[in-house]
């Protein structure tokens, strides 16, 4: 598993490099900015560049992992389709080609002949990325490769990534919006049990120098049988009298009202499901609560595995509330990742329907559930 984890981290680092290049290189940034209006309105291929950046990152991860582990090639799934239509009405399937030149030529077809932008992307796509970590070399965990699947969210919090704001006002280390909420999420799960077993979160815009040159940071965790190991910095013990929750600012007022007695002023707001779970992982908040169906398996699988390695987890909120009402306190099932929701529409079949609670402490989870039962 050390080889697989290393490969996942390298893929996430290459993805972060692509995300940073799209913000840094003018030829790419001009395609990424918001759609112009009126006579200056961009063509369809320019409007779609927001999605193209996502797709390229997803295809890079699938290519790099599939090349090193061929048995996983058909078990890597993500948010985006890799089919694009250019300004001429041609449908192009985006993929990583054998050579940098071939990849550039393919991408230029999507970008209606913009070779400069295509060459910049192809260079990032074919760049070799290496990481070195003493802990990774010591991992000796045997997980059967023929039973695992992978979920990928190439750029979580895409809107914040596109807007590119550098937000300076924040509370308790939690940024309510901005580039810092963008993240590359990769999760490994067991195809038999559906349980998450390995996760990587890469934050491409973790830290900026005075010249706004960005550096990223990645986090990882493994939770498999009795083995729990992670890269998360040591945290202070949880204070069970000072519970804090992170959520979306658009959350229902009734939910905010129900949780206020638990948290007081310690309800924080942020963008991006992956980032809000990361805030929970890092101990910046004790839990993340969402009641809508707007998160998906690719948003939660990787972060869920890391939370499990810390002794926490993620549960379906609606199902837990029903379970506790009908049967009382007991074992609470975690989210699973192998089966779609058969009763949902095609676009929603992999949604975490019913909302969720991501938590670090069982005691905090129980307090949140009890507050929402009222």
| Major sheet details | 6 strands, mixed
Query: How many β-strand runs?
Result: 13
The level-1 CATH class of the largest domain: Alpha Beta
CATH topology of the largest domain: D-Maltodextrin-Binding Protein, domain 2
N→C terminal distance:
44 Å
The percentage helix is 25-40%
Strand order of the largest sheet: 1-4-5-6-7-8
Q: Tell me the fraction of residues in β-strands, as a range.
A: 15-25%
Number of H- or I-type helical stretches? 13
Order of helices and strands: HHHHEEEHHHEHEEEEEHEHEHEHEH
When the domains are counted, the total is 2
Task: List low-confidence stretches.
Answer: 34-47
Average pLDDT rating? 87
Q: What structural class do the secondary elements suggest?
A: alpha+beta
Describe the structure.
There is one protein chain. The chain is α+β, with helices and mostly antiparallel strands. The chain has 2 domains: 1-127, no CATH class; 146-374, D-Maltodextrin-Binding Protein, domain 2, CATH 3.40.190. Helices cover 38% and strands 19% of the residues. It is built from 13 helices and 13 strands. α9 (253-263) crosses α13. The protein is globular, with a radius of gyration of 21 Å. 44% of the residues are buried.
Outline of this structure?
This protein has 374 residues and is of the alpha+beta class. Helix content is 38%, strand content 19%.
Helix and strand layout, with pairings?
Blueprint: H1 2-24, H2 26-32, H3 44-47, H4 49-68, E1 76-78, E2 83-85, E3 91-93, H5 100-110, H6 115-125, H7 134-138, E4 148-156, H8 158-163, E5 183-190, E6 196-208, E7 214-224, E8 227-230, E9 245-247, H9 253-263, E10 267-269, H10 273-281, E11 287-290, H11 297-309, E12 313-316, H12 317-327, E13 356-359, H13 362-373
Helix pairs in contact: 1-2, 1-4, 1-6, 5-6, 9-13, 10-11
């Amino acid at each position: 598993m050390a080889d697989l984890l290393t490969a996942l981290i390298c893929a996430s680092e290459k993805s972060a490099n692509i995300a940073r290049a799209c913000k840094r290189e003018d030829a790419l940034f001009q395609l990424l900015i918001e759609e112009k209006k009126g006579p200056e309105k961009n063509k369809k291929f320019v409007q779609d560049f927001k999605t193209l950046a996502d797709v390229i990152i997803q295809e890079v991860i699938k290519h790099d992992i599939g090349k090193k582990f061929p048995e996983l090639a058909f078990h890597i799934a993500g948010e985006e389709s890799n089919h694009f239509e250019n300004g001429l009405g041609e449908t192009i399937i985006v993929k990583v080609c054998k050579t940098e030149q071939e990849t550039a030529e393919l991408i230029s077809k999507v970008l209606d002949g913009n070779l400069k932008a295509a060459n910049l992307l192809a260079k990032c796509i074919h760049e070799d990325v290496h990481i070195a970590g003493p802990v990774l070399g010591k991992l000796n965990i045997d997980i059967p490769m023929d039973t695992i699947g992978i979920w990928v969210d190439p750029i979580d919090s895409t809107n914040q990534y596109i807007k590119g704001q550098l937000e300076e006002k924040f509370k308790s280390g939690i940024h309510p919006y901005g580039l810092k909420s963008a993240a590359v999420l990769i999760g490994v799960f067991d195809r038999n049990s559906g349980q998450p077993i390995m996760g990587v979160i890469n934050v491409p815009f973790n830290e900026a120098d005075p010249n706004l040159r960005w550096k990223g940071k990645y986090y990882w965790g493994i939770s498999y049988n009795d083995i729990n190991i992670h890269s998360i910095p040591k945290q202070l013990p949880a204070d069970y009298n000072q519970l804090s929750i992170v959520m979306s600012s658009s959350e229902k007022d009734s939910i905010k009202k129900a949780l206020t007695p638990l948290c007081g002023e310690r309800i924080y707001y942020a963008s991006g499901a992956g980032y809000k779970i990361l805030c929970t992982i890092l101990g910046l908040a004790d839990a993340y609560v969402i009641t809508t169906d707007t998160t998906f398996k690719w948003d939660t699988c990787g972060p869920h595995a890391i939370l499990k390695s810390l002794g926490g987890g993620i549960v379906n909120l609606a199902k837990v509330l029903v379970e506790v009402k009908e049967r009382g306190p007991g074992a609470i099932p975690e989210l699973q990742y192998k089966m779609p929701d058969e009763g949902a529409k095609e676009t929603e079949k992999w949604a975490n329907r019913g909302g969720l609670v991501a938590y670090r402490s069982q005691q905090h989870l129980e307090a949140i559930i009890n507050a929402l039962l009222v």
